[in-house]
Specification:
By secondary structure, the chain is an alpha/beta fold. The protein is built from twelve helices and 17 strands. Helix 10 crosses helix 11 (about 325-335). Strand 3 (about 80-85) and strand 4 form a beta hairpin.
Length: about 375
């Protein structure tokens, strides 16, 4: 006799396999779950009865009898995803089948603080309810800086006043009676890449996040790396230059710093209203500034590649506006700087996902964590 916890776990695993498209029939699902066809059939029947799965149509293979196809039911519920930084809060609604059905964005005022950000997050989740199908099943939050996901606490974020040891999950639980997951924003982007981007068929990849700061998220053997202090990927805190004589690396290689270098303005020059568009206008420039940025990025990516040897490094944030050329030039320069990479340069890819990747990833976390109620 299986325990209720094991039953819920296996039901949620069945949903994940069907939702991903990797299991389209009972037989394939049984193989994916490594369970007998009879046990798998019991789970499928339960999920059909509860309105989470549907079985329809016929899929004819090359050999054997035709089999009925499984699919998740979009209207069985929905998930909210929130991702924020010091400039804006983004929210998405994803239905039970994983389709994005609504997106909301709110720009934060310059004097935004911890309390106002939490209030805006709650307001946007409430607004996502409009036009929904089914019940809210879970909330995922992608927060910047250091996070304690087990406690649901935002530990520290330097660019938002008062953001220290913020009980995000507890505050939102006052408004919403559903599971709430808190993760670092780059780690939620990693899940967005798995469900909606180029990471669908990859077990290992790295997210590059030069935005307001600079961090990475690492997926190894299909799992996000976290670390003892939940600080895996905080490479923006490296000393820079690497000889230890300067400040932090994120101060030199964040998206704002790159724009200032390429635009030839001072380090205190105000940023344009649309940083992505401003960077796109510089995508074809050449010269000392471009080569300097490429060289600095090649040092960082070369070291990461020698450490992680990942199949792909997905670039996110405003610097994707610099296009494929930026990624190619960095990869080529890594081999010039580090001969060991001559035959194995990093595969740097400007992500196809947009600015809502973090919110999509946060919703994906909630979606992956869903389990049916007892």
């Amino acid at each position: 006799m299986r325990s209720p916890e094991e039953l819920r776990h296996n039901l949620s695993r069945a949903i994940l396999h069907v939702r991903s498209g990797h299991a389209t029939s009972r037989r394939v699902l049984a193989d994916a779950l490594r369970l007998s066809p009879s046990t798998t059939g019991y789970y499928v029947d339960q999920l059909i009865a509860s309105g989470h799965l549907a079985e329809s149509g016929l899929e004819q293979g090359r050999m054997g009898r035709p089999k009925r196809m499984l699919r998740t039911v979009p209207g069985a519920g929905w998930f909210a995803g929130i991702e924020f930084n010091a400039e804006r809060v983004q929210a998405v609604r994803v239905d039970f089948s994983g389709a994005q059905t609504r997106t909301l964005t709110h720009r934060l005022p310059e004097d935004a603080d911890t309390a106002s950000v939490l209030q805006e997050i709650a307001r946007l989740i409430t607004e996502l309810h409009e036009g929904r199908k089914g019940a809210l099943l879970g909330i995922g939050i992608g927060a910047p800086g250091l996070i304690d996901p087990a406690a649901g606490v935002g530990v520290h974020y330097a660019f938002l006043p008062g953001w220290r040891n913020v009980p995000v999950r507890a505050e939102l639980a006052k408004h919403f009676e559903v599971p709430i997951i808190l993760k670092n924003n780059l780690r939620v982007i990693a899940l967005a890449e798995r469900w909606f981007g180029g990471g669908r068929e990859l077990d290992d990849y790295v997210i590059l996040g030069p935005r307001r700061g600079f961090g990475i998220a690492v997926v190894k053997h299909g799992r996000l790396l976290d670390g003892q202090h939940h600080a895996t990927g905080e490479i923006g805190r490296w000393v820079w230059p690497l000889n230890g004589e300067g400040g932090e690396m994120q101060q030199a290689l964040c998206s704002a710093a790159v724009w200032r270098r390429l635009a030839g303005v001072t380090s205190t020059a105000p940023l344009p209203g649309d940083l992505r568009a401003a960077l796109q206008s510089l995508a074809q420039v050449d010269g000392e500034a471009w080569q300097g940025v490429v060289n600095d990025y090649a040092r960082v990516l070369g070291l990461l590649h020698l450490l992680l040897d990942a199949p792909a490094y997905f670039l996110h944030g405003p610097l994707t506006a610099l296009g494929r050329r930026f990624c190619t030039d960095i990869a080529l320069q890594t081999a010039r700087l580090m001969p060991a990479l001559k035959d194995m340069p990093p595969n740097i890819v400007a992500s196809s996902l947009g600015d809502d990747a973090g919110a999509l990833g946060a919703a994906s976390h909630a979606m992956e964590a869903w389990q049916p109620r007892s």
